[in-house]
Write a structure and sequence with these properties.
It is built from 17 helices and 26 strands. The chain is globular, with a radius of gyration of 24 Å.
Length: about 600
């Protein structure tokens, strides 16, 4: 087993040196001034500031017991309690210790995009509860909180300041002449990039990457950076263990560039990582970058260390350091669409090739694996892995299964698919031949495959409950993403969970059983390596291990609707036991349609 992943505490002097280096890259001659203000901010607001010369001991960052649930603050509601209280109670009584962590999607006052257009960063939406409810969740689980730092709601006080020409918000936004050539800017949406707003100084045009309600912030102004450092510290003080950097790829703007993954953006991530390592060692930075694979994994910072990362060396990043110093965790964004292709086509070769391409990560870096999330299933991560006609076939099939496709504007002005909006359960309704009776086995096999991969698994609540497309919710909100953001009435959900013949009961029961077994299996430690074994395209087989004692695990999956023989040489190497039922595996067994196994061999 490789060297374990440990926290990297930063002592005071080391932090000052690193922070000054990052600030010099960002703000040049102003770095000394900004550093003084930063240190003052930390002295007054940090959850812990080690005395000079002292460094806290390093501790393990994660283990096989790390499994996360993703949910909105109002994913579960009843008529008597605050939704955040309902979520905490459901976790305690229905799930116990199944999940080590819970990522509560933005729970702040908001004006659009179901929370991702924040009005007040330091308040809890009173419809959901208050900070004691958040701290209660944090006392039971590793708590994930979103730092929505690329943009802010136009209903925020900062934006009101801007309109009136008042500090501090007056200088927090990016004004742009509408005649400026911005054709090189990479867009995640097809809405106008510049939004015209009336101000006391007359009409102005502001940068808005995602929507006219989500106005981008100007991180070239160090006041904005320091504002968000203060917000980060506040979240850590409320008990956050995981800080998710939302839409981080678009943070820094520079006319004449793509305005995505710019060197300054990576420098901001490094600074936030250094701050976290200094004041809350063991807290994790997670980057959210729904982009093609090579760009996505650049947020580990591996290319700067000569460790096999790719994608940004040609932008002039310095070669420095010995330990990755950006994100601890990066979403596996190619995984959901590749799984979708695999289970609808019955062909695992493309998924296997992608898995083999993943770099061997150094200690302190891991992937966050998932199938479904609050957003749609990204299409851009398929670039370079599926030809256009295969992507088109997938999109057409998802339409047939009740889904929709959100678009973005490319450099040439043409619209291009950005994400598929559908629940994961409905996405597993059938294959290219259409809907069939194999929806539940196919769905469960897709989840078991994800759970067996190297990294930390995260399950969206609506995957755990096998939720159907919420067409009514989508029509009510007018947003395609609402199809996968249903708010369960807890009583209704409990009745479905208690009824043995519902798909909700079947999905929930099977998945919680898998999670309970997984959390006790040492081969699923995030640092244990994986190897994809050569098989026919109907199968995907991943080996995890070996551990120091020789223990290995084979995660075997039939991605078709037909039985498949298991002619694997590895199965002739000693005795293999089924990790789910404890029985010895008989090699003459074939794998049923969408069957999956976790087989363990220990000398």
């Amino acid at each position: 087993m490789p060297e374990p992943s440990l926290s990297t505490p930063l002592a005071a002097e080391a932090f000052r040196e690193r922070a000054h280096r990052h600030l010099t890259m960002l703000y040049g001659p102003r770095a000394d001034e900004v550093l003084r203000r930063l240190l003052t901010l930390l002295a007054h607001q940090a959850p812990m500031t080690p005395p000079d010369g002292e460094t806290p001991p390093a501790r393990p960052l994660w283990s096989e017991r790390d499994q996360w649930l993703i949910a909105y603050g109002d994913s579960l509601v009843d008529d008597e309690h605050a939704p955040l209280e309902v979520l905490d109670d459901f976790l305690a009584h229905r799930l116990g210790s199944t999940f080590s962590g819970v990522h509560v999607l933005p729970f702040f006052p908001w004006s659009s995009d179901d929370g991702f257009s924040v009005i007040h960063y330091r308040e809890v939406d009173p419809r959901l509860g208050d900070w004691p409810d958040i701290r209660q969740l944090a006392s039971h689980h590793d708590l994930g909180i979103d730092l929505v730092l690329n943009h802010v709601s136009r209903e925020s006080l900062w934006f009101a300041d801007y309109l009136g020409g008042n500090l501090p918000g007056r200088d927090y936004f990016i004004e742009m002449d509408p005649e400026t050539d911005l054709s090189a800017v990479v867009r995640p949406r097809n809405s106008p990039l510049l939004v015209k707003v009336p101000t006391r100084r007359g009409p102005r045009h502001l940068w808005a990457t995602f929507s006219e309600d989500q106005i981008d912030l100007n991180f070239a102004n160090p006041d904005v950076l320091l504002e968000f450092v203060g917000i980060l510290l506040f979240y850590l003080c409320q008990g956050a263990r995981v800080i998710r950097l939302d839409a981080i790829a678009y943070l820094w703007k520079e006319v004449g560039t793509s305005c995505i993954h710019l060197p300054q953006t990576h420098e901001v991530v490094r600074l936030l990582r250094a701050i976290t390592d200094h004041v809350a060692p063991g807290a994790l930075i997670l980057t959210e970058t729904n982009v093609p694979h090579r760009e996505n994994i650049s947020y580990f910072g591996l290319e700067r260390q000569g460790l096999g990362g790719q994608g940004l060396e040609d932008q002039g990043l310095e070669q420095a350091g010995t330990t990755p110093d950006e994100a601890h965790l990066v979403y596996q964004f190619p995984l959901p669409p590749l799984l979708l292709h695999t289970f609808t086509s019955g062909e695992a070769g493309t998924l296997a090739a992608w898995l083999r391409s993943l770099p061997e990560l150094p200690p302190g870096c891991s992937f966050l694996n998932f199938t479904a999330s609050h957003d749609g299933i990204g299409v851009r991560p398929l670039e370079g892995w599926l030809p256009p006609h295969e992507v088109e076939a997938l999109l057409e099939l998802m339409h047939r299964f009740g889904g929709f496709v959100s678009m973005r504007t490319k450099d040439d002005g043409e619209d291009s698919p950005y994400e598929i909006n559908i629940t994961w359960f409905d996405a597993m309704k059938g294959t290219r031949r259409g809907a069939d009776p194999w929806q539940m086995p196919r769905f469960l096999c897709s989840q078991q495959l994800m759970l067996g991969l190297q990294g930390i698994p995260a399950l969206y609540l609506h995957a755990l409950t096998g939720t159907l497309n919420d067409i009514e919710g989508m029509e009510r909100s007018g947003r395609l993403r609402s199809i996968n953001r249903h708010s369960w009435d807890r009583g209704s959900l409990e009745r479905l969970l208690d009824s043995r013949h519902t798909s909700t009961h079947q999905a929930f029961t099977a998945l919680t059983r898998l999670l309970e077994v997984r959390r006790d299996e040492p081969c699923f430690h995030p640092d244990v390596p994986q190897r994809v074994i050569e098989t026919p395209a109907a199968l995907l087989v991943v080996e995890r291990g070996p551990l120091d004692d020789g223990r290995r695990l084979l995660a075997i999956h039939n991605v078709t609707d037909r039985p498949q023989p298991l002619a694997l040489e590895e199965l002739n190497e000693g005795v293999w036991r089924d990790r789910l039922d404890g029985e010895v595996w008989q090699s003459e067994h074939a794998l049923p349609p969408y069957g999956a196994l976790w087989l363990v061999n220990q000398p």
